[in-house]
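@here heads up, posting the sequence + SMILES for the zinc ion run so it's all in one place. Ping me if the SMILES looks off, I pulled it from an old spreadsheet.
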Amino acid sequence: MHIHQVIKYFEEWAPKGVAWEKDNIGLQIGNPKNQVTNIMLSLELNKKVFEQAVKKNCNLIITHHPFIFNPIKNLNFSNNPKAELIERLIEEKISIYSAHTNLDFTKGGVSFELAKKLGLKNIQFLENQEGNQFKLVVFVPSGSVDEVSEAIFNAGGGVIGEYSKCSTQNFVDGTFEGSEVSNPTIGKKNIFEKVTEVRLEVLVNSWKLNSIVDEMKSVHPYEEPAFDVFVIKNKNINYGAGAIGELTTPLNSKEFLAHTRKLLKADALKYTLGNSSKIKRVAVCGGACSDLINNAIDSKADAFITADIKYHTFQEAENNIMLIDAGHYETEIHVLNPIKLRLNKFIKEDKSKVKVFKYSGSTNPVKFYNN
Ligand SMILES: [Zn+2]
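bot reply: prediction finished. Complex C-alpha cells:
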C-alpha cells in the first residue's frame, strides 16, 4: 500500500475541492510513492507526536491542522523548533498529510462527529456549500446512453445525497452535417443528418468536472460529442459547515452543560444562557465557527456549541440562544475516530498489514487553572 493510494481513498471522502481556497491541505512533507508502514493520526503535529510515530514504526502522520500553514522563512535546523522537526521527519522518511477544512466540510467529518459524540440524532449540515456544482448535459445516440452514463457515474457524476447514478434522460432530435474531412459515426459527410439522441443530464462537483468530461468523451461514439456545462445555484447537499441535530431526550440548561462537559471531556465550558428552558435541537461546529451563530438561530437551535468565541459574540447570544465554548481541541479531536474507521476499512480491503494509531497523548496547548 502506497501513500498516494491512502490519500486517494481519503480524498474520495473529504475532497480537496471543498476546502477553503486559502487553506494548505494535502501532502505537506514526504514522498507519495513510499510504501506505508503504519499510520499515526493526530489533531496536529509536534515533537511528541513525531516521537510516538517513530516508536510505532509509522511513516505516515495524518493531521487535521496543517503542519505547514504560514510561510516558512528559513530552515535553520539549529534554532527553529519547526525546522528541527522537519529535519527529523526527512531523516526518518516520515510523510505528513493534512486534511483541514476539507474534513470540516465533509459528511461524517469534524462537526458531524462532534454531533454524534453529543448523542444528536438526524444530523444535517448547518449550512450547505454553494457554487461548487455544475449541471453537465450531454447529447448521446440512444444506443450508447448506458455506456456514456456509466462512465460519468463511475467518474463521480450524478451523486445527490445518499443517491448515486442520478440522471435525467430525454429523447431529443439532434442535427448535424459533417465537413469534407469529418468522420461521422452516424450518416455520411456532407449530408445533413437528423437523428434521435438522448439528452443526458447529471450534477457534477466542480473539482470532478474535468475528469468526468474526459471519461465521457472517451466512451462517447461521436467524433465531436456535443455537451454543455451549466453553472447552477443549488446548495450542495453533500458538503457544508457545522451540523445540527436533536437530543433524544430534552435537557434543561444545567443538565445540558453537564452532558456536554462529560462527553467532550472538557475541563471547563464558557457559556451564556439562551431563551429555551429545554435544550433539544443543538447546532455544533468543531473549532472556531462563531460566524455560524445566525445559522444556528435561523435553524431554531436551542443551543450552539463551538470554540474560540469572543466576548461580544456571547453578548449577542445572551437570552437568544444558549452558546457554549467547549474548546477548540475538545470539539475537534473526535474526528480521528471516523478517520481511523475509514482507513481500517481500506486496509482490510487491500489485505494489508498496516496499523492505524491515534496519538495516545494530548496535543491541546490550552490549560485551565482553577485551584
Ligand atoms: Zn481547528
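MO: The mean pLDDT is 95.
MO: One more: The chain has three domains: 3-99+334-358, 110-128+240-326, 132-232.
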